[in-house]
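User: Here's a structure from my thesis project, written as C-alpha cells. My advisor, Dr. K., wants to see whether a designed sequence matches the one we expressed. Can you design one independently, without my sequence as a hint?
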C-alpha cells in the first residue's frame, strides 16, 4: 500500500508563561512525538478523550498550526524519506539534508509552496455553525476556495459551485441563502462542499457528526463514504465516538496525552483493545 501522509516525531507545544514578566515556565505538550502513516484511500480513525491532542494533530498536519518539531511527509517517495533519515542519523547538518527538507518536508514549507500544497489538503470542522461565515451566501462560501486558488471564475465558477452542491445533496435553490437558514445537517453538507472545492486528495474530518442528531449523523457518514469512493479521497477521521469509528474506519489509532498509544485494524482493535 502507498503511504500518502507520514509524520515522524511530530510535536506541537504551547508555552506556559508566568510571573510579571511573562517568562516561559514550561510547555503544554499537545502533540508529543507522533509517528504515524496513513495510506492512500484509507478511512483512518484517530480516537481519544477530550483534550488529548487529536484536533491539534489534525490542524498541525495541515499546517493550520506550525509544528514545534518533527517532519510531515505528503506523497513523498520512500527513497527520499530513507535518504533524509540516513543524513539525520549521520549527526551532521549537511547542505544536502537542508535541501531535501526544504523540498519535501511539509513542516518547512512557506509562502507560495505552502499555498499550492493546501489545495491538496482540506478540513471539515466539528461545528458548521462556527466554521461558516454567517454574512456570506452559500454560493460565496463554497466558491471562495476556487477564487483564492484561482481555479475558476465567472460562469465556470457558478457551474462548479452548483456541481459541488448537487454532489453533497443540496440544490440550486440553496445557492442564495445564508447559513442560519439551514439545519445542522445541511450546514455540514455546505462545509463538506467547500472542502471538496479544490479537488483535495486528503481531508481531515474533525468530529464532523458530533453536533448532529443520530439520524442525520448516519446520512452524513454515508455521504462521506460515497464521496470517498467517487473521488478516491483519503480521510483522517477524528472522533471520540468509538461506535462511529467502528462503522467507518479501516484502522484506528488511540491518542493519549499527545502520544499514539495504540494502533490496529478496526476489527482487531475492538476484539483485543490494549489501552
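Assistant: Designed independently from the structure alone:
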Amino acid at each position: 500500500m502507498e503511504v500518502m501522509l507520514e509524520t515522524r516525531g511530530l510535536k506541537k507545544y504551547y508555552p506556559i508563561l508566568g510571573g510579571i514578566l511573562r517568562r516561559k515556565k514550561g510547555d503544554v505538550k499537545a502533540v508529543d512525538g507522533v509517528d504515524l502513516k496513513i495510506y492512500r484511500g484509507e478511512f483512518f480513525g484517530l480516537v481519544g478523550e477530550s483534550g488529548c491532542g487529536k484536533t491539534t494533530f489534525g490542524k498541525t498536519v495541515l499546517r493550520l498550526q506550525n509544528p514545534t518539531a518533527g517532519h510531515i511527509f505528503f506523497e513523498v517517495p520512500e527513497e527520499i524519506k530513507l535518504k533524509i533519515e540516513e543524513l539525520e542519523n549521520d549527526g551532521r547538518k549537511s547542505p544536502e539534508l537542508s535541501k531535501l527538507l526544504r523540498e519535501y518536508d511539509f513542516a518547512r514549507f512557506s509562502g507560495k509552496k505552502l499555498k499550492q500544497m493546501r489545495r491538496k489538503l482540506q478540513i471539515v470542522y466539528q461545528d458548521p455553525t462556527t466554521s461558516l461565515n454567517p454574512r456570506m451566501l452559500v454560493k460565496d462560501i463554497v466558491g471562495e476556495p476556487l477564487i483564492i486558488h484561482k481555479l475558476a471564475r465567472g460562469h465556470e465558477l457558478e457551474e462548479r459551485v452548483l456541481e459541488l452542491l448537487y454532489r453533497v445533496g443540496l440544490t440550486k435553490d440553496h445557492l442564495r441563502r445564508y447559513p442560519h437558514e439551514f439545519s445542522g445537517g445541511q450546514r455540514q453538507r455546505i462545509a463538506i462542499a467547500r472542502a471538496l472545492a479544490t479537488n483535495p486528495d486528503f481531508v481531515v474530518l474533525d468530529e464532523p457528526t458530533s453536533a448532529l442528531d443520530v439520524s442525520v449523523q448516519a446520512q452524513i457518514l454515508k455521504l462521506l463514504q460515497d464521496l470517498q469512493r467517487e473521488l478516491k479521497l483519503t480521510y483522517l477521521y477524528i472522533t471520540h465516538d468509538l461506535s462511529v469509528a467502528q462503522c467507518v474506519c479501516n484502522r484506528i489509532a488511540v491518542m493519549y496525552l499527545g502520544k499514539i498509544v495504540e494502533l490496529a485494524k478496526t476489527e482487531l482493535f475492538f476484539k483485543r483493545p490494549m489501552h
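When you compare it with your expressed construct, this may help: Strands lie at 3-18, 23-39, 43-47, 69-74, 121-124, 202-206, 234-239, 251-256, 259-265.
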